[in-house]
Amino acid sequence: MSEMKRKIICLSIILILFSCNKKDNENVDEIAIAKNNNYTTEISTDVNQLQKLINVSEFKPEKVRFKHILIDNSKGRISGPSDSYLEAILYFDAETMEKIWDIDKRTDFPNPNYQKQNFHFDWLDNGTLSELEKSDSLRNAHPDLIFGTDNGKCWYLKNKILFTKETN
User: Fold this and answer.
1) Residue 23 covered by a domain
2) In which order are the strands placed within the sheet that holds 63-72?
3) How many domains in the chain?
4) What confidence tens digit (pLDDT) does each residue in 20-60 have?
């Protein structure tokens, strides 16, 4: 075997291994947790972690990104009361998004009249922020229907939902 053929084979093997490794890394959920006194901030792309905070079992998103802040007011004594703040973007396929929109349209409840600025999360990408700015104010929803929450807010975008919830 010539030297040139060996180099091409070695290079091909390295490229194949590199591309396999890259695919594996793309499927890894991102989770970052920071603690500062009684504040715990979690930023994650793990759907299972989000499931602990809101019910996504009926309409499971394809992917998510969220920021959850927990303020433990108990100061290490007995549990509670604690404040928490959740900001999330949930991505759905077109079919699931249509089902969500149909449920929302068929339900009789007053338009919650949420404001776009409530969904201007500091960690959103520019494309999502631009889409939010251009979106229709009637594209907001009551999250009880979708995520089983009683104090959250939703805003629909194309195949994604911005969600926020406060507990204090």
Assistant:
1) no
2) 31-36, 39-44, 63-72, 82-91, 160-167, 152-157, 140-141
3) 1
4) 444 344 455 677 777 777 788 999 999 999 999 999 988 99
Type of residue at 89: I
Domain that holds residue 124: 29-167
Is 91 inside any structural domain? Answer: yes
Long-range contacts of 28-31 (CB under 8 A, 24+ apart): 30/65
Residue 2 lies in a domain: no
- pLDDT bucket at 4, cuts 50 / 70 / 90: low
Cβ–Cβ under 8 Å, residues 129 and 120: yes
Residue type, 82: S
Q: How confident is the model at residue 71 (pLDDT cuts 50, 70, 90)?
A: confident
Is residue 5 in a domain?
Answer: no
